[in-house]
């Protein structure tokens, strides 16, 4: 029997609100994430508003496998009243794999670290026992984000990326 799906909830961080992703976020996110440099380590190119809307429709509808949960958030920067990036968690019985992206104009201000810490804290309140991230070895900014969220690099590699891990301890 599979576990019930986990549903993204709003999460408040210091400067950010992690808003459960909605299809309506696509237009603003397409602009926020339009810099081709964001794809240096992950590949691909920026998506148009229509392509991002299609992607968000798929993400919001959820995965085809009942034992998997896709939790996605748009990152709302309160001080500027705008979306600045996304963060996600794919949750299975084995744990959660997280990933994030911050638009170029908002990088180097600690938003990814803040969002990742808030997400890991939220995950720790549920049934998740491990948190993973896969990070390109040359992506030092993402390594800093993972470290800030309490993840540590392992010796494991997947598709050339380093597997980062944090075990969540239960009281």
What can be said about this structure in brief?
This protein is α+β, with helices and mostly antiparallel strands.
Classified by CATH, the class is Alpha Beta
Roughly what percent helix? 25-40%
What's the average pLDDT? 94
Number of folding domains? 1
N-to-C terminal Cα separation, in Å? 26 Å
Largest sheet: 8 strands, mixed
Low-confidence stretches: none
- Order of neighbouring strands in the sheet with most strands: 1-2-3-4-5-6-8-7
Principal-axes geometry comes out as globular
CATH level-4 homologous superfamily: Gcn5-related N-acetyltransferase (GNAT)
Q: How many strand elements?
A: 8
Briefly note the CATH topology name: Aminopeptidase
The number of distinct helices, counting runs of at least 4 residues, comes to 4
Rg, alpha carbons: 15 Å
User: How much strand?
Assistant: 25-35%
Oligomer: single chain
CATH architecture name:
3-Layer(aba) Sandwich
Helix-strand pattern, N to C?
A: EEHHEEEHEHEE
Secondary-structure content class: alpha+beta
């Amino acid at each position: 029997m599979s576990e019930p799906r986990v549903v993204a909830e709003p999460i408040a961080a210091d400067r950010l609100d992690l808003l459960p992703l909605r299809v309506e976020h696509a237009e603003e996110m397409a602009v926020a994430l339009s810099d081709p440099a964001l794809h240096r380590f992950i590949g691909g190119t920026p998506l148009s508003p229509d392509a991002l809307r299609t992607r968000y429709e798929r993400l919001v509808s959820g995965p085809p496998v009942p034992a998997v949960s896709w939790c996605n958030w748009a990152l709302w920067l309160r001080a500027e009243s705008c979306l600045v990036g996304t963060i996600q968690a794919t949750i299975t019985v084995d744990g959660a794999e997280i990933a994030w992206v911050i638009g170029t104009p908002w990088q180097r201000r600690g938003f990814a670290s803040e969002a990742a810490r808030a997400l890991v804290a939220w995950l720790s309140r549920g049934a998740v026992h491990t948190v993973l991230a896969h990070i390109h070895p040359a992506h030092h900014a993402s390594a800093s984000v993972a470290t800030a969220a309490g993840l540590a690099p392992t010796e494991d590699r997947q598709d050339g990326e380093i597997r980062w891990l944090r075990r969540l301890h239960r009281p």
